[in-house]
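Hi V.,

You were right to ask for the full record rather than a summary. Here it is.
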Amino acid sequence: MLEQTLFNEISKDIPFEINIEKMMKDRYQHWCFKKGNQYICSHCGKSTSDEYSHCIKCKIELRSRLIRKNSNLSKLTDKALIYILQKHDDMIMQRVVLANVYIDSIDLTEYVESEEVERHIIKDWKTYIISKSQYQKNTWRNGSFNYYKHGLTAKLGIYPDNLREWLSDTILKNSTIDIFIDNYMTYKSASMIYWKLAIATNYPWIEMLYKAKLKQLWLNVLTNIGKVDFRSFKPHVIKRYRVDLQRVDADYHDFCWLNMLKRKKVKFKTEDIKKLSGSNYIFNSKASMKNIVDICKRLDINVLKLVEYLDFQKAQGTYYLDYLSLMEKINTPVSIESTIFPKNLIEAHDSAVNKFNALKHEADNKAYKRRLRGLVKYEYQNTSYSVIVPEKLEDILNEGRILNHCVGSYIGKVKSGETTILFIRRTNELETSFYTLEYHNGVIKQCRGKGNCSPDTEVDEFLKEWKKYVKKPKKRMSKSAEVRA
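Predicted structure:
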């Protein structure tokens, strides 16, 4: 919250340096209205001749419009948002005005309504935003104004032609921001200029870049302001790296690489910085740089050698990290040249994936086999139907493919013991898929057949019979269970 004294100072009434009414009328399309036998100029409200392409009094061009009983003059409204750069006392301001030109339906004359709805202020090396409350008239509050519901037809801007001279008696009189605005901003508007002035106010270290002859870095930061991590730029950091940055004429990505390598205490040559930031496959983001640097420290390899290797392999750092992780999971040490820098990274990665999947598959089946001994108690058959326990996890996957349902997605739960999957077969066709049963904690969760269909009456009756059998205490094992045990 702003202090009340400061808030009162930045929200006080301040006269405008331009005539908003004249500005809006000058840009408006003027009309010559024909009402009966009379021609009326909307600009001056006076009658004009029947030659109504020009007003004989105003000497301005007009467009004709015939007034009828059902004429809708509200369509001739022009609503604009005006951004005005202005100085007052020790403040630099961007004043935002909502202006509206409309035609009065009685006298057919143009009128202008305007209201200042937002104010951006630079004062004492700080920036503030206040706006008019949309619920309490003529009351200022902290925060921005919502323009979207006002049906704007245009945005206008008023800013000084000579910015250097305009800033000469402000806190930014020694700033170099005007050099950037005058020479490097391809599109200029009052709001864009104020934004750059606010950046120069909030981050005065940007001046240090220009004065330290780091023009490329200065220009890169101001051009890509939305992509810059300002936390990295501290005056002591700029001073510490100034010589190295000057040597390579560093841009923002060069600075990020240099800062990362220095902080991580990785050995490198200053001239290698450009090669690192110029990589086609390493994203110039902090996360990507950190991944590369961490790999180099972990494997004790040269950072440039790794980046050039990844460029040659056309692979990103995350892909290489995935390869290292897989090699660790399959207990293959990455310590010699052939494993650190395989000739074909994609083939080496795919080979590691296959080995990992094979080991995981083997481990899963071992875990399921340990469960299997406790599941044989669920096996049962009568003359029509049988309940059998899947021997392997692959059997569950095949069951899902054959019956076209989603039982394959339950493998993880089956392995961990969260649920149990059983197969229902016709007794005379034990090898043919029929229904799949999910059972857990004495409850039949679901029973599904081909295409996820529900069981018929006969199968329902069989399930009731099977459930009674399962709940009975028993000390015997089926023949198939004895074989597995």
